[in-house]
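Amino acid chain
________________
===
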Amino acid sequence: MMPIISNIDPDLAPPGKQLVIAGTIGGPPDLKNAPLWDKILDRFDQKILSLYPEMEKHIIKRIKTNPKTTAEIAGRDTGDVIGLAQRYDQCGKNKPSPATPIKNLYLVGCSAGGRLVGTEQAADSALKVSDKILQDLATQTSTSGVESPIPVPRST
């Protein structure tokens, strides 16, 4: 995967420059695999430059991360950056529900309520969860008799 993030938000890079984030599947996060991580990153880097040889002379800064650095940045033990402490068995239909047992507390983002991948998954979650919040607010308003300060779309 290699999105050019500054094409989405030009303010992320100086004028005439691009911010490119390239990522690949790495080795297991166990520290005994650390030598493998560097080999994977070097090979990945070589592959990108073989596909885009002109890119090398334009690189201003290159940051390579691995499961250890990701764990340190994200504060997670295994270097994953999924989200809500998601486990392998919390994908697809087994994702956590955006609704929680606490009234008016919802989960939103890649880990709950959305489909697709990455940013699109988080955006899908935000749209679906915001609809759920508005529905719940409409129900609370109609049962309490108190008018909501937020305009709530009424379904017909």
Observations:
- The chain has two domains: 5-74, 92-144.
- The mean pLDDT is 81.
